[in-house]
Amino acid sequence: MAFDLRFTKGHGTGNDFVLFSDPEGETELTPTRIAAVCDRHFGVGADGIIRAVRSDRLPDGAAALAEDPAATWFMDYWNADGSPSEMCGNGIRVFTRYLVDQGLVELGPDEWIAIGTRAGVRRVRALGNGGFEADLGTWRLDGGEPLVRAKNLPVARPGLGIDVGNPHVVVALADDSELDGLDLAYLPILEPQPQAGANVEFVVPAEPLVEGGRGRIRMRVHERGSGETLSCGTGAVASALAVRHWAGSGAPDEWVVQVAGGVVGVRMAAEADGEHVLLAGPAELVFDGVLSLA
Ligand SMILES: N[C@@H](CCC[C@H](N)C(=O)O)C(=O)O
């Protein structure tokens, strides 16, 4: 059966997405279709698909509405291989820009919008510099410290498991040459392997490590379900949290994370329900199109 899709292509620091609007949740999204759309040779090409659907049309959306009735739109996020994810930090900024661009929501300066996700409700606001900031909520060390093997890494290294709505394992490397030498076309191997899989981030300090009170790191990532990407927002957040954890007391609560596709900002802020972590960065919509797949 033919599958026609009217879409918008967008990205946040090079982490790219095919976005489309399906308010009533009528489009049948199968892993095969998603992988075909995201295919960089035979489809549009993207790290993931994001569907804008009314929250009351999906079971996960109903849960989001129960948490916050203002979360009327749901970010239905899927990785390039057709697997779902709970959260996407770059995606939620691009999704918010898409909702505004499509006239589906109005967003005043500094006004927060509530978005439904599989990880729960998340809030996003537009920044004066054209970018967006997403409050990714509370986070937790998930207790795991798996050993991580990656191609061109001579010995296995310990990772730190962090959950920021989706699962991450962060690995500290020695220096830029070790980071640049990794071949992330190959899947890093985790021992033990987390049941739900994990996004794996490799980090090194940037030079200087702290500037103007903000910590600075470089990161590369192998995303669950998408492979190596130019950026991962939740990965940047997990990396900053991991490096702050390793640095101990006195480490900054604001971080600049350099990724292959640009720079994002991370800050930690105390809230009534625990410490929240927030992610700021660009959100670009680059073209619209119609895709017809046989
Ligand atoms: N690129 C995203 C994360 C997308 C989901 C991830 N691959 C997963 O499976 O959890 C981001 O910017 O956070």
From TrEMBL:
InterPro entries from the UniProt entry: DAP_epimerase_AS (IPR018510), DAP_epimerase_DapF (IPR001653)
GO molecular function terms listed in the Swiss-Prot or TrEMBL record: diaminopimelate epimerase activity
Pathway per the UniProt entry: Amino-acid biosynthesis; L-lysine biosynthesis via DAP pathway; DL-2,6-diaminopimelate from LL-2,6-diaminopimelate: step 1/1
Binding site for substrate: N15, N79, G89, N90, N166, N199, E223, R224, G233, T234
Pfam families in the record: DAP_epimerase
Location(s) in or outside the cell: Cytoplasm
Record field: catalytic activity: (2S,6S)-2,6-diaminopimelate = meso-2,6-diaminopimelate
Positions of the record's site feature: Could be important to modulate the pK values of the two catalytic cysteine residues: H168, E223
Keyword Translocase attributed: no
Record keywords: Amino-acid biosynthesis, Cytoplasm, Isomerase, Lysine biosynthesis
Catalytic residues (UniProt): C88, C88 (proton donor), C232 (proton acceptor)
EC numbers on record: 5.1.1.7
Complex formation: Homodimer.
Family membership: Belongs to the diaminopimelate epimerase family.
Function: Catalyzes the stereoinversion of LL-2,6-diaminopimelate (L,L-DAP) to meso-diaminopimelate (meso-DAP), a precursor of L-lysine and an essential component of the bacterial peptidoglycan.
Protein's name in the database: Diaminopimelate epimerase
